[in-house]
Amino acid sequence: MKITKVAKAGTLESNDILIMVSPKDRGIIELDIESIVMQQFGEVIEQVILHKVQEMGVEGVSIKAQDRGALDYTIAARVETALNRAI
Amino acid sequence: MVYAAQVTKVNLKDIGEREEVETFLREFGLILDGDVDYTCVIRDEEPSPQFSLKQRAPIVATCSKAKNVLKCFAIAHDLRGEGMAATLVTALIDRLFREGIHHYFVYTNPCQVKIFSALGFKLIHQNQAVALLENGIYDIRQHLEELKTTYDIGTAERAALVMNCNPFTLGHQFLIEEAAHNHREVLVFIVEEDRSLFPFAARLALVAEGTKHLPNVKVIPSGEYIISSATFPAYFLREEGERLQAYAELDASIFGKYFCSSFQILKRYVGEEPYCPVTKAYNETLKKVLPIYGVELEEIPRKPFADEPISASRVRSLLREGEAANLINLLPEVTLKFLDTSLGREIVEKIQQTHSPH
């Protein structure tokens, strides 16, 4: 799946996450996470996002995640929506 | 108490609605800036007998934007800490994305920095009066990295100039030639904000063409971080006084802190400013601020013609008065040629119809 434009999903509200995605060339996957629970759950958030990206077969994308304490399935849903909007 | 706050858009063309926002902002010592293009509010939702059905509930929070800058932000004191800021900022980001803007700034009071940092905004610079933060799909460091690759900016030491060139004159050319003579490489940043009579694309092309004979000069768009409506709104609003001072300081600091350190810029050149008080004050500020970042400012006297300094504003007033014959001594050939194109003639006509200082 190829990312062709900039898109976002989610909000900055508590317990949500704002995902912004934009195209990147040469099959790069760039991920930048900011979270209020970075220390405790930073790695889990990263895994959830990368898992979703792989599952959808996306290559060449820059993802910026601003997390406000979202649960795993919220994160996965926001990433999926953002990527679908960016095709 | 507001449950599940609803954000509504304000119709800025409706005088009543606009006044309502202005009245609310006044309580916080704020005004609704003239350049605002989008405003949204959250209203108190508690059903209250004192408001008839026709009347709207009072505003409890508001935020606006002007292009890519969030501003005029206020939340009622008793509702702070309820997540209103997140709701408002999310609504503004929705709007920005819909307009195709994916990178944005907040201009705010330094004591509000914490609120916006908590919402993912990164502080670029702050002084006693103002703070500038940014958020979106890139940031200033990524922007600088990209410039480095695009314009092949190596590690050698260099000088820089920032110019509007509205339009490109013999004075500008002289200044760039001076810098090019003294340094191995010179970066010329052309103000990208399209608020001048000569459009950015034309200004950039004229400078690029008019410096072709100088192989060590690179002409670069200034981007959003040098004299833009984000870093220096006062420049375009022609404001003077305290606000101008704060904005000029911010712009100069960003240049020193980010541009000079990543591009090894040792010296910035400016032309002496005989006319415009805003530019004059800006030069004075550069003189004070740049040395803090180890950068020297060199002010070069303007190249004169007939005992008067050559400046773009002098060119514009000649164009306005229809005295194009005298321009041959003020403008390089590229600009003279451009004025003779259909776009050039269109701009001259516009100049003759307006009194814009730019």
Q: What count of helical segments of chain A does DSSP give?
A: 2
Q: What count of domains describes the coordinates of chain A?
A: 1
CATH C-level class of the largest domain in chain B is: Alpha Beta
Radius of gyration of chain A: 12 Å
Radius of gyration of chain B: 23 Å
Task: Tell me the CATH superfamily of the largest domain in chain B.
Answer: HUPs
Quaternary arrangement of the chains shown?
Answer: heterodimer
Keywords (chain A): Cytoplasm, Lyase, Phosphoprotein
GO molecular function, one term (chain A): lyase activity
Subcellular location (chain A): Cytoplasm
Protein name (chain A): Citrate lyase subunit gamma (Acyl carrier protein)
Describe the structure.
Chain B: Keywords: ATP-binding, Ligase, Lyase, Nucleotide-binding. The complex is a heterodimer of chains A (87) and B (358). Chain A has 87 residues and is of the alpha+beta class. Chain A has helices at 38-55, 72-86, and strands at residues 7-9, 17-23, 29-35, 61-67. Chain A has a single domain (7-86), classed as Ribosomal Protein S5, domain 2, CATH 3.30.230.10. Chain A has two helices and four strands. A four-stranded mixed sheet of chain A has the order 1-2-4-3. In chain A, helix 1 links the parallel strand 3 and strand 4 (61-67). In chain A, helix 1 packs across helix 2. The longest helix of chain A has 18 residues, at 38-55. Chain A is globular, with a radius of gyration of 12 Å. In chain B, a hairpin with a 2-residue loop joins strand 3 and strand 4 (69-75). In chain B, helix 4 (140-150) packs across helix 8, helix 8 packs across helix 9 and helix 10 packs across helix 12. Chain B is globular, with a radius of gyration of 23 Å. A seven-stranded mixed sheet of chain B has the order 1-2-3-4-5-7-6, sandwiched between helices. The relative contact order of chain B is 0.10. Chain B starts with 6 loop residues before the first strand and ends in a 5-residue tail after the last helix.
